[in-house]
Design goal:
By secondary structure, this protein is mostly helical. The protein has a domain of 135 residues. Helices cover 52% and strands 6% of the residues.
């Protein structure tokens, strides 16, 4: 099925922007936030669709993936068919840049991958990173999961959802043989043929988020054991801070201690994975959410307006400030996080951020009680 022609949908961006501006003091109101979301997303999608196919998947993973994720999250909350149409158009555009669509060979693995490769992060050699593919494939599966649960959306977008789910499944299946059990009991990790060792937490958890979304979409638990093992691997390498927080490193070793602290941008992937796991009864408990709340509110989002660069004690600030918007799923379970991130949306660092639509979408979801 061809992607919907967005020109057939009347533009709401101008109207939405006027509404959002007229009611600026009510920015926390859900209707105003949704209006702002539309005002930001519609031109962003149009701009993305004008970009040519790229051979550098990293630029999509750290750019268009946020827009895909924002649309998938807002579709889950609002079930607006306009967001579904925008999502399908952008997803098809992103899929055109997958390596197998361009006959680009992974020079490390020695084969063409149904994934998004890059030469930027691998010393000039073309290589498909699990993290890039996870960032782009997870929204495809999450879109499919939402459409499958909604009869009206399914009637119009069911074929698209099935097609995009197959694309997500095929993309992450290409990395399946890089998963390993261990090293500890009940743990698992993902190895990297370019690095010659296991991946950093955020990279393997980006892949695991896609497995979660695929299982949600199919209604099966095909990936459950691997997800649980990766979650346990991360939990076993997190350590308690003296203020009740949880801290962890970017690349903890398979064994031994790690006293380093991850930056808040890469940490957003791990926090999102942690919350998604908790919502499905996987490894992480309510106490873990409370501890991550302490990390955010006591170590990262400081009372004086500064945003710490890392999840541990900070000496540098505001380098990745807008990345805290991607911690938004935590707010569904922790009201203080929701309140603080809503306030952060009014900060200068958030107002011009390309990640703002995703932050709005994550915070638009209703709270989850009793979990």
């Amino acid at each position: 099925m061809r992607s919907p022609d967005l020109r057939n949908f009347p533009s709401l961006a101008t109207i939405a922007l006027l509404v959002a501006t007229a009611f600026a003091p009510l920015r926390g109101d859900p209707a105003i936030r949704r209006a702002e979301f539309d005002a930001l997303v519609e031109p962003a999608v149009r701009q993305a669709l004008r970009k040519p196919v790229t051979t550098e998947g990293g630029s999509l993973a750290w750019g268009d993936s946020y827009l895909l994720a924002a649309l998938a999250e807002m579709l889950e909350t609002g079930r607006d068919p306009r967001h579904a149409a925008q999502f399908v158009a952008l997803a098809d555009h992103v899929l055109a840049s997958r390596d197998e669509q361009q006959a680009l060979r992974d020079e490390v693995r020695g084969r063409v991958m149904p994934a998004w490769g890059s030469s930027k992060y691998s010393k000039g050699r073309r290589f498909a990173w699990a993290v890039h593919t996870g960032m782009l494939a997870a929204p495809l599966a999450r879109f499919a999961a939402t459409v499958e649960r909604d009869a009206k959306l399914k009637a119009t977008f069911g074929a698209d959802a099935a097609r995009l789910l197959r694309a997500a499944e095929g993309s992450v299946a290409a990395f399946a043989n890089e998963y390993r059990d261990g090293p500890g009991a009940g743990e698992g990790h993902v190895v990297c043929p370019f690095l010659g060792k296991h991946l950093p937490l955020n990279m393997q958890n980006a892949l695991a988020r896609t497995w979660l979304a695929i299982d949600d979409a199919t209604g099966r638990t095909d990936h459950r054991e691997r997800i649980e093992r990766l979650a346990r691997f991360m939990k076993n390498r997190m350590r308690a801070g003296p203020d009740g927080s949880l801290v962890w490193g970017y690349w903890p070793p398979l064994s031994g201690d790690d006293e380093r602290f991850e930056d808040i941008s890469h940490a957003s992937i791990n926090v999102d994975f942690l919350v998604l796991c908790h919502e499905r009864g996987i490894v992480f408990k309510r106490a873990d959410l409370a501890a991550v709340e302490a990390t955010l509110l006591r170590r990262v989002l400081l009372a004086d307006g500064r945003v710490g660069d890392r999840v541990g004690p900070n000496v540098k600030f505001n380098t990745f400030a807008d990345a805290v918007l991607r911690w938004g799923r935590l707010g569904r379970h922790r009201p203080a996080v929701q309140t603080r991130l809503e306030a952060f949306l009014e900060a200068e660092a958030a107002k011009s951020s390309a990640q703002r639509p995703l932050g709005i979408a994550l915070l638009a979801a209703p709270p989850v009680a009793g979990r």
